[in-house]
Write a structure and sequence with these properties.
Distance between the termini: 30 Å
Shape: rod-shaped
Number of strands: 2
Bound molecules: zinc ion
Order of helices and strands: HHHEEH
Length: 129
């Protein structure tokens, strides 16, 4: 998507640079389409696009997080209250979804995960605690 957006930006900039009005602007600014400055402009636009895309992704993930949290609110089973022999339930500590179910008494080598994958991503981005 970014690549396509970048292609469009490059095409538009190149197209603009060929038009009389813009040709003068580019010329006045001392920007040649093959120059480092031109490439820098494309890079700046590219960075802006990349930021916009990742902001959108983060926004979508935050929305998903809030929906998961709402959907799972109060649905967690208390392992301590379940009858003996029941499986153990492990939930994401951030959003509350069920991450794993383990048979009670099963030898556990790997500790259960504390957070689901999407919440780990959001935590790494500093968007949730
Ligand atoms: Zn989660």
């Amino acid at each position: 998507m970014i690549t396509r957006a970048k292609q469009i930006v490059c095409a538009v900039l190149e197209d603009l640079s060929e038009r009389d009005g813009f040709k003068q602007v580019f010329k006045d600014m001392g920007v040649e389409t093959q120059s480092e400055l031109f490439k820098e402009i494309v890079q700046v636009v590219d960075d802006m696009l990349a930021k916009t895309v990742s902001d959108k992704v983060a926004e979508d993930l935050m929305l998903r997080f809030q929906n998961r949290k709402k959907e799972w609110e109060g649905k967690q089973k208390d392992n301590g209250l379940l009858p003996a022999g029941s499986p153990m339930y492990y939930y994401c500590k951030a959003c509350g979804i069920l991450i794993e179910m383990r048979s009670e008494g099963r030898f556990v080598r790997v500790p259960p995960l504390k957070h689901c994958q999407e919440c780990v991503f959001l935590m790494n981005k500093g968007l949730i605690n």
